[in-house]
Amino acid sequence: MGDDNGGGGNTGVVAVLVIFLIVVAALFFAWRGGLFGGRGTKVNVNVTVPQSQSSPQPQSQPKSSP
User: Fold this and answer.
1) How far apart are CA 12 and CA 18, in angstroms?
2) Coil/strand/helix, residue 48
3) Contact at 8 Å (CB) between 40 and 34?
């Protein structure tokens, strides 16, 4: 009896949620695209082994059985 709007109050809540989701999705794609520096982090993983200063030792020949 008191429902004169036919569910109009729920329509406003759904509209606000949809707008919020669109804004969040737009911000996510803008961040991924680099608009806010999303791809600015670069890690250099170049690992090198320092060479020893001593003279290299000769490699031993593999011993095979006759």
Assistant:
1) 10
2) coil
3) yes
